[in-house]
Design goal:
Radius of gyration: 25 Å
CATH superfamily of the largest domain: Nitrogenase molybdenum iron protein domain
Number of domains: 3
Number of helices: 16
Strand order of the largest sheet: 7-6-5-8-9
Length: 417
């Protein structure tokens, strides 16, 4: 497998070829391809009549979940809405000068497809993270695709989450084939103009491939955490957080970057003590063995330099003066400061979005937000008098760029015919 610096590139040429073949088949064969691939990859028999989740199935899902879980989803949704509405408010502004008004306004995109991962875990929170900003933005058509369980169902709490958030269409299709259906459409699934949401390397590869034809959000693959700590940090807390992010899947990355050899030793001891007793311990063990790391640096500047080059999805800073270190971080999907701001809080109760760039893409991308669901448009109104005052500036630049008719478009407005 190729490497980019310290990182492994998890989309290789063989996988990309396989994904391209899946996309091509869905594009040409439509629903029949979705049925074929769902049988092949998920061992579930679909037919054209049950690709889409019915309203009755969603209503029945409420009977299968606890009221406490539903209330928790509603509370998290409110937290996300509060943050996204604040962002929306500050996206709209007007600049007024003498004879000139520039208004910055927004319009929602026409439709969005939200991918919700499946597998051994269940992610109703990802429904909230992908759909809530879309609703705040005012997108008229929101679609969800999620892979079915081996019983052919979607987890009831995911269906309840789609109902709470006001999703328009839900389909029991996952993997690269779902991304292809959202991009190009089938008999059952109309295409969307943008695809968002995290997924495994097949899903991420498919999103990148179809991005030539349909917009995507960010490359969000297997989860990552890096903890930057010094000798003041609590080794127990660090071990808990490294373990928690490793239980998603065996291809997750968890790392400690520290200036304290003593802390590193204590963290290893904590992990070794806890892992044998864990639920999902096998997944945690595989993830930490395959993609876990501890780097010890002789000074904090070197440690910070590594973090910026690695550009982790989640970064925790647990040091003596974390705010000073935060100012030096240039590349991270999200930063959690101190002993009592774990990644888990960001996942479930703070309201910040947990769909975040992975694989080093935090060097150029940001977390999913309302910015991904709207188009920004400037509306400009200029008076005759103000245009006259500015025409020499326009004429100078148009002449320099050898575009005389651009200059004439303004000059002609003030010259008698």
């Amino acid at each position: 497998m190729k490497k980019r610096g310290f990182r492994k590139i998890f989309i290789d040429s063989n996988l990309e070829d396989d994904v391209k073949e899946i996309i091509k088949t869905v594009e040409t064969q439509g629903d029949s391809a979705l049925i074929e691939f769902t049988k092949k990859f998920d061992n579930v028999n679909l037919n054209a009549g049950n690709i889409k989740i019915s309203d009755k199935e969603i209503l029945n899902a409420y009977k299968k979940v606890h009221k406490k879980d539903v209330n928790a989803l509603k509370q998290l949704k409110k937290r996300i809405e509060k943050i996204e509405q604040h962002k929306l408010k500050h996206m709209k502004y007007t600049i007024k000068e003498s004879g000139l008004t520039i208004s910055h306004t927004i319009r929602p995109i026409e439709s969005v497809g939200c991918y919700i991962p499946g597998g051994e875990a269940v992610y109703p929170s990802t429904v909230l993270m992908t759909v809530t900003p879309a609703k705040v933005a005012g997108i008229p058509r929101i679609v969800v695709c999620s892979p079915p369980t081996d019983q052919g169902e979607i987890d009831p709490l995911i269906l309840v989450a789609t109902s709470i958030c006001g999703v328009d269409e839900v389909y029991r299709v996952g993997g690269a084939q779902a991304i292809a259906a959202l991009a190009y459409g089938t008999e059952s699934i109309r295409p969307v103009v943008k695809i968002v949401g995290p997924g495994n390397r097949f899903v991420t590869s498919a999103k990148i491939i179809v991005s030539k034809d349909v917009a995507i959000d960010i490359p969000a693959g297997p989860s990552e955490i890096v903890i930057l700590a010094d000798e003041t940090a609590n080794s127990k807390f660090i071990a808990l957080d490294l373990i928690s992010q490793s239980e998603h899947a065996s291809d997750n990355t968890s790392g400690l970057v520290t200036t304290s050899r003593e802390l590193a030793t204590k963290v290893i001891q904590e992990i070794e003590t806890r892992v044998p007793r864990l639920e999902r311990g096998e997944i945690v063990t595989k993830a930490l063995s395959k993609n876990g790391f501890i780097f010890i640096y002789d000074n904090m500047d070197k440690a910070i330099s590594f973090v910026n080059s690695f550009a982790p999805e989640h970064l925790e800073i647990i040091t003596h003066k974390p705010l000073e270190i935060t100012k030096k971080i240039t590349s991270a999907g999200i930063i959690f400061i101190g002993n009592y701001t774990p990644v888990t809080a960001g996942d479930y109760c703070i309201g910040t979005n947990h769909v975040i760039p992975t694989s080093g893409f935090a060097q150029t991308y940001s977390e999913l937000s309302i910015f991904d669901y709207v188009k920004r448009i400037n509306v400009v109104n200029c008076s005759k008098e103000r245009l006259f005052k500015m025409k020499n500036l326009a004429e100078t630049l148009a002449t320099r760029e050898k575009l005389p008719n651009h200059s004439a478009a303004i000059e002609g407005r003030f010259r008698d015919v």
